[in-house]
Amino acid sequence: MAVWDLSITVEELGPEAPPLKISVTSDLHIGGVILKVVEKSQIKQDWSDHALWWEQKQQWLLKPSWTLDKCGIHADARLCLTPQHKPLRLILPSGISVRMRVCFSSPVFRTIMGICKLLNIRRPEELSLLWPVEEKKKKKDKDVEGEVYDITRAPLPSSTIPTLANGMPAFFAEAPDTEAVYKMLAISQPPPAPETIAKLYRSTNIMEKAQINSRWMDSSRSLLQQGVKENDKLILRFKYYTFHNITPQTDVVRLTQLYEQARWAILLEEIECTEEEMMVFAALQYHIGKVSVTEQFVTSCPAMEDLDSALQCLEVKMEGESSADDMLETMTAPELHDYLKIFRPKRLTLKGYKQYWFTFKDTTISYYKSKEESSKEPIQQMNLKGCEVAPDVSVAGQKFCIRLLIPGPEGMNEVYLRCEHEQQYSRWMAACRLASKGKTLADSSFSSEVQSIQSFLAMQKTTPSNNTAQTDESINTHSLVSPRYQKKYKPKQLTPKILEAYQNVAQLSLTDAIQKFLQIWQALPDFGLSYIVVRFKGCRKDEVLGIANNRLIRIDLSVGDVVKTWRYNTMRQWNVNWDIKQVAIEFDGNVNIAFSCVTADCKIVHEYIGGYIFMSTRSREQSEILNEELFHKLTGGHEAL
Amino acid sequence: MDDIDAMFSDMLQEMDLLTQSLGAEAESAPLPKPPSLPDPPEMNFSIGFTDLNASLHDLEDNDLDALMADLVADISATEEKFATERDTFKESAPFAPVPSQPQSNFSLPASTDTSKPATSSNSTVAPPPPPASKPSKEELEEQIKADKIKLALEKLKEAKVKKLVVKVEITDGSSKTLMVDERQTVRDVMETLFEKTHCDCNVDWCVCETNPDLQTERGFEDHENLVEPLSTWTRDTENKVLFQEKKYKYEVFRNPQNFYLWKKDKASLKDMKDKDKEQLLEENFCGASVIVPDLEGVLYLKEDGKKSWKQRYFLLRASGLYYSPKGKTKASRDLVCLVQFDNVNVYFCKEYRNKYKAPTDHCFILKHPQIQKESQYIKYLCCDDEWSMTLWVTGIRIAKYGKQLYDNYKAAVRKAAGSAIWANRTIQASSNASTPSPTPKAKAANGHAPQHAVETKGPSNQTSFPPPPPSMDILPPPPPDPMLPPPPPLAPPAPPSATKVNNFPPPPQLPKSSFPPPPMDDLPPPPPPPEDAELPPDFLPPPPPSFTSSAGDMLPPPPPDPIGSFPPPPPAPQNFASAGGPPPPPPPPPPPPAPALAATTPAGSVRKVAPPPPKRTTPQLAAPSGGDFMSELMTAMQKKRTQ
């Protein structure tokens, strides 16, 4: 058989080095070629991760037993011996970059499985990779790259389930710096500076939103095939908005990153919400930020869980034991009393605040002319159960008022209580809040409520100028809302609004708060819609196709209205004509639609629809094993066949 | 120390006296006055009557009787409770470490489900203070004293429970009067009403409140407490409580497409497949967050303090009701929030065209439940037609209550299904008992045990409906299958029914049959089963009403149970011969569960209450083996302490 020369570039020899030439015959298999190259290169190292890449054809030669003939390689082929895993800079949903080695040779779907395994994120099928937006004005901010966490040392993900140590995958527990990386992954980031938000903020029209979806990687091809190079920057995101079976114990990182993605989506107005909703989101962010500083992430190691539950049992038991004392205590419930000022706005009265002796007992406020008369009948009693409590506070102006709306048969009675100073205010405010929920002062949450009010008041004291460091208590409220509201309100004005929303969430634990945030996010009307600009067959103008987990919607670009909705469960089939780049879908009742994609490749649309269909099959089979084959079948298009 | 001791025994005595005197009082004049402490102000008053006296005058005789029965049952239950209490004292005294168990069991009726795990965990663990070795006399005394304290506190707690006498108007204009305590949910109250009215138990039944001043009506949701909203009525109120069928109550779950796909034309939705409906429900109610129907459209809003109504474009979101101000788009950022749902309820209104010059009569309002009169704090809204009103009101309810609504519905369906096949069940229960399946069944029942505790109502009435208490959303719904859920030994009312089973014709035909089985058989129909539910109160020792009843759960259960548990089997032979019909179950051999067995273990296990106290003490004394992690931990700790 004829012997011919094959030229192979070996990366390890440096970019300048000429390709190595080896003589081969056509029946030599790929494994043999690699062996020869390695011998010739005379470099001693672990070559096990290396494989041949065929540049002209943009293709990996991954089957060692195939002969050159079978692969169709002739003397003119330029091959390259290169590692399959290369470092890549991944931008996590939290916006933080991690440098890690990922697989450049397997389909992106498999690559993401590897990434997620290392990062300890379950359900990798919900995530994908996309190109970041090209940065235009580079001059200004070259140093804003931020910190990059390097975990390229991590072992390549093997097939084994990562073992846990100290509640984190064993790899992270090895050294303090890797432990820090895991903390970064598992704990939500402190609120960003308002400028950061403003800088990342861009126009939020629907066309803009559609742009982002043109940058997704193709799941069925490898990174190298898609032009990704070593050390490139890619974004890791949750792509499919159906989050299967989230369990806080095992999903610490997943939950945190999901929260980060949701938070940024809200802050950058990638998804719209109303002012009221924004204030709740802000309150939750504030709360999550505060709690995650104190309450470290819950460890997920099973032994720890046992201990946890044991401790809980013990706690319950103790409570059971001490219940007698507790109950006695509740019977002599604690009280508050102080001289406060009261004001009842009424029509045609201009009376100001009047001072009385106030007592707070159970859920009721009573007031008397003076302390001496407190044994007599009170002037009035107000039961706060079910009332609305709002702060009316200005730290600068030393005004500490509590506005109460107390329901009565005739309507709501508006009452203002004025306190002298912060401490007094926070105690009475806390009592009012608890009472409005039907809890008494004896409730265990009283002191924490007092504290959270005080820390919130502290926010007002900080001047908006020192908003760089977001440590401890001083958080600029502008960090919690989108630029629209940064413009609309001064921090001072925002504080009471956020505080009002905050009273409903102040008692949540970290995971509860995160889950609440996600719940409200998922309840937004536009949640889970990915937009793509398309042109429907027979139409002359561009329209927008919104793809959600259960439906497709057609949106009129000019008005922004939903024109039509099709649900997947009425879908019979969908086809892609790759030549004319058209997607055709048939629904029940002889409804046929066809469109070509304007802003994205039709493969992306195809993958979205197929991906969502795939996601919906998961609920039935409870197994943890990912049906990769099915995913590719549904999303692969012609490559999969 | 001695002082406290003395104080508490005094207190105990006093309270016993109180209850006794109450008993006497109740016999002479049926004043609805639960055992009370000196101080509880406005603890109970009656709803639907202008004052208490009037209420008593108003009551019809049978109502009075019923009320009496309730009260007596109440009292006897309490007394029984104390009796058993004393017994356990005596019983457990010889054993060294009297675990606080028996007493904490008493707390169960009063406390909520959460206390259940607490006590049961208690049970596995060795009693705290005294080491498992031989306790000294002092320790014993101390223990007893602690128990007394607990008992006293429990009594105080019980006395604090607020109760109302409520008059409920039924559709036919008649009324029923019942006593409702503050721990009862609307669902519980409806159970009682089902028994009292013999209506079918379909899911549309609804307890409503009407307010003649505002001309409003609102159906209480099944999970709400009834006492709380009623307590906020003014004393001279003319508000009423109604018990009616309301189609709209759960319509969204029967035809979710009409709500969630409301934009589509209705004809095309008409014959949607059940599978698709289910999927809709699954999508919208079973995800991480409940999805609210994306309602939007023009409604009329009555302007604050004015007589005019203004058209506005409204949108419903999970976070509240919004409208888009004039000249703005529908974009989220421009929306103005009219109201959020945390503190308001939604009410249907009647004849607002007259009252407020509304454009149509299809109005609803949003207000704080305590507001009873016209007020600027009420939001008045008016829709074009009735359907859109239903749409909006339902949407708002979904936004307000979320998944709870769906859980309520599922519980109601279980209940309805249970009552429909009730007749079937009696027979099947008997055949079931004869097949060797009781053990798994008992297990199953045990499975849901902890949640029930409070719910398992008076062993009599409630249990006559075999399906598990409906307010339990945690259970996987077993009822659809008539064979499974009825643990035969569960039903004390079985005695009457069991005897009747003999000639009871199997009515397998209509699974949807309404509660009173149709008397279409020519056989001399014995009192139909619903009667059974009614009867016990009359000639059996009155069943404890719900709240005290759980006291019955702990110890008293055994007596009625055995009877209930084995009668079913015998009737089989003739029964099936005469029935000759559709459900010919396996030949009924002599019941495998031996009477003795049935009398003791199954009853106990089915009842799935925390293991009875005496049992518990023994293992502790014998060996701290326990086996479970907690008890080991505890014993280790104790050892440490004693050393």
Automatic annotation (TrEMBL), chain A:
Keywords: Cell adhesion. CDD domains: FERM_C_fermitin (cd13205), PH_fermitin (cd01237). It holds the Pfam family FERM_M. It comes from the Eukaryota. GO terms for biological process: cell-matrix adhesion; integrin activation; integrin-mediated signaling pathway; leukocyte cell-cell adhesion; platelet aggregation; regulation of cell-cell adhesion mediated by integrin. Residues 341-437 form the PH domain. One of its GO terms (molecular function) is integrin binding. Gene3D superfamilies: Phosphatidylinositol 3-kinase Catalytic Subunit, Chain A, domain 1 (3.10.20.90), Pleckstrin-homology domain (PH domain)/Phosphotyrosine-binding domain (PTB) (2.30.29.30). The keyword Ribosomal protein does not apply. GO terms for cellular component: cell-substrate junction. Belongs to the kindlin family. This is PH domain-containing protein. It comes from Cirrhinus molitorella (mud carp).
Automatic annotation (TrEMBL), chain B:
The lineage of its organism: Eukaryota, Metazoa, Chordata, Craniata, Vertebrata. Its main location: membrane. The keyword Cell membrane applies. Belongs to the MRL family. It is found in: Cell membrane; Cytoplasm, Cytoskeleton. It comes from the Eukaryota. SMART domains: PH (SM00233), RA (SM00314). Residues 162-248 form the Ras-associating domain. Residues 101-116 have a biased composition (Polar residues). Residues 19-45, 92-141, 429-643 are annotated as: Disordered. Keywords: Cell membrane, Cytoplasm, Cytoskeleton, Membrane. Residues 31-41, 465-496, 504-530, 555-573, 581-595 have a biased composition (Pro residues). It is a peripheral membrane protein. One of its GO terms (cellular component) is plasma membrane. Residues 292-401 form the PH domain. GO terms for biological process: signal transduction. This is Amyloid beta A4 precursor protein-binding family B member 1-interacting protein.
